[in-house]
Amino acid sequence: MKVKILNEKSIPDMPWESKPAGCNDVIWRYSQNPVIKRNHIPTSNSIFNSAVVAFEGGFAGVFRVDDRSRSMSLHAGFSKDGLHWDIAHERIKFKTDIPEMADFQYGYDPRVCFIEDRYYVTWCNSYKYKPTIGIAYTYDFKEFTQLENAYLPFNRNGVMFPRKIGGNYMMASRPSDSGHTPFGDIYISQSPDMIYWGKHRHVMSPSASWESTKIGAGPIPIETDRGWLMFYHGVLTSCNGFVYSFSAALLDIDEPWRVLKRGKEYLLSPQELYECAGDVPNVTFPCANLVDKDTGRIAIYYGCADTHTGVCFTTVDDVIDYLEFNSQV
Ligand code: BMA
User: Of the four, 19, 128, 186, 232, which is 20 to 30 A from 153 by CA?
Assistant: First the structure.
């Protein structure tokens, strides 16, 4: 490996498939996609933009499940191999001593980030039916304690960094509106205590055609000796509506709002049938990555057409090599 990965675990048994012969892409799909199909549990209409982590010798996750009344909520799940999942039929009921936070309407698009001694969940949480970023923590994926929302509405795609930087927790987010927002930049906000978030810094605006409408952080950024490697989604508005693809950026280690490299092109876009057809066509939406510190292998979990969950693969070296020669900045 050319690039050194910092602060990640060894996950020798994480999902992996080698790049298919003749494939020139930086990211390639798992041959058995989608790994979680829409009706995986009896109550689900769809299971898609979801977050998984290595946990106790296996894997655990928080899944976006839209049920058959089309209510959106988060469910916990466990897996031995990261591919076959046992997902709770009931939604997560967050414990909280903040009455305003207990008023559940909907929740979606979770991310899970291990920081210090526990797993933090961030997600798009409704507050009086308006989306903003909720925060909770868990030690065991059975009991979840909810904290204050990070921001005022409207906000989406809250993605934490896995350690304090310059004395503060850091979270990327994308301020938005109440609907299918036609704009969106990535910002980073800072907090000394996971409650008060401020010192907001602008990171990136939409730029290239594939991401010209809006962009949002995807999985938890990966710390390397070249900077934070962060996958992010970008949206193009076509005659037929939004198209969600994703690429990668490299951010400064100490001031992650400084963009060092940024992909010129998408690295994965909706092209397979399960990404192009579903409840919302033409969506590939990454929410998690597993990274093996020893080999640099990455498995990305992504929502497919707001319907199923897929997995795709790359390596830290492959992505950073790509960015080296194909950067917008
Ligand atoms: C975004 C979010 C995502 C969804 C995407 C495409 O605004 O709602 O959950 O995957 O739109 O529909």
Answer: 232
- What residue segments make up the domains of the chain, in order of their start? 28-325
Q: How far apart are CA 121 and CA 103, in angstroms?
A: 18
**pTM of the entire structure?**
0.98
d(CA 316, CA 5): 8
- Among 132, 88, 133, smallest CA distance to 111 is for 133
**CB of 282 closer than 6 angstroms to any ligand 1 atom:** no
Pocket of ligand 1 contains residue 230 by CB under 6 Å? no
Q: Is the dihedral of CA 126, 131, 137, 140 positive or negative?
A: positive
Write the pLDDT tens digit of every residue in 82-128: 999 999 999 999 999 999 999 899 999 999 999 999 999 999 999 99
Q: Whose CA is nearest to atom 10 of ligand 1?
A: 306
Could you tell me the distance, in angstroms and rounded to a whole number, from the CA of residue 141 to the centre of ligand 1? 24
The fourth-level CATH superfamily of domain 28-325 is Glycosyl hydrolase domain; family 43 (2.115.10.20)
pLDDT tens-digit map of 172-193: 999 999 999 999 999 999 999 9
